[in-house]
Write a structure and sequence with these properties.
alpha/beta; about 270 residues; 8-stranded mixed β-sheet; globular; Rossmann fold
């Protein structure tokens, strides 16, 4: 079915806001330029673009791994900064799944998932990995949700690519996050497995009322699962669309909203 376009007014309560953001790794060449972005709480937001377009850098700006060269980034109305106590407290509520998944391959599935609980256990329990019974029970419930409860004691290196991604999702969910960031989590997977992984994230996002921000290279997959899709090309946001089912409900080109575009068009017609 072809998506239909009609006017919509959206005024979101944002968990992530970016205004006129530029980012560089060498202080000379910009990886991102003039990015404006507002991501609503409790939604599934997709960032789509080719390799090297700056998609992963956007996630690094959100979780504080990188600072913008210019412009402002706000996450939960705070500037991402590991030196600020308020943001350090919130960072534990950001579940981040990098492209390489960041799993400890020689430990079990359960041990990998329990890593997600470490930030709330305190220094002593974290160091000695002393996990309360409730935390272990929560881990098994999450493993059941992602379809790995029968593999809790299996070493992670023994798993398939799709199963390792399920472990990474379970570890992130074990953090009890408000915000879930996933960088190309379905890349290099066959279509059936990719759909299974996307279904898991979609179900978790709804069940736990998460905001999920996912980097993709597959536009069709992004449109199928996301509430909003931003397209990044050579470091610039060239398009953003709002999606409801099979309909596109609003759009931006560059940093101009649908309303601004229509206003300019109407002015030019006078």
């Amino acid at each position: 079915m072809e998506k239909q376009i009609f006017s919509s007014s959206i005024s979101p309560l944002s968990i992530v806001q970016m205004n006129d953001v530029f980012a560089s790794y060498d202080s000379k060449n910009y990886v991102l330029q003039n990015i404006r972005m507002s991501i609503q709480r409790g939604t599934n937001y997709a960032i789509v673009g080719q390799s090297g377009s700056g998609k992963s850098t956007l996630l690094k700006l959100i979780n504080g791994m990188m600072n913008p060269s210019n412009g402002t980034v706000k996450v939960n109305y705070q500037t991402p900064n590991f030196h600020e106590k308020s943001f350090k407290k919130f960072i534990a509520k950001i579940g981040y799944i990098p492209q390489n998944l960041g799993l400890v391959k020689n430990t079990t599935v359960l041990e990998n998932v329990m890593i997600g609980a470490l930030p709330r256990l305190g220094a002593f329990k974290s160091f000695f990995k002393i996990f309360p019974d409730k935390e272990i029970a929560d881990a098994y419930n999450i493993l059941k949700m992602v379809g790995l409860d029968d593999k809790a004691e299996r070493k992670t290196y023994m798993l398939s690519g799709g199963e390792r991604r399920r472990v990474a999702i379970a570890r992130a969910l074990m953090q009890k996050p408000d915000l879930l960031l996933a960088d190309e989590i379905v890349s290099e997977l066959d279509h059936v497995t990719a759909i299974e992984i996307m279904d898991i994230i979609s179900d978790a996002q709804k069940k736990f009322e998460l905001t999920s921000i996912m980097v993709h290279h597959d536009m069709n997959l992004a449109l199928e699962y996301a509430n909003r899709v931003a397209v990044i090309k050579k470091g610039e946001k060239i398009l953003e669309i709002g999606v409801e089912g099979d309909e596109i409900v609003d759009f931006q080109t560059g940093n101009l909203t649908q309303k601004e575009i229509l206003e300019q068009y109407n002015e030019s017609e006078k």
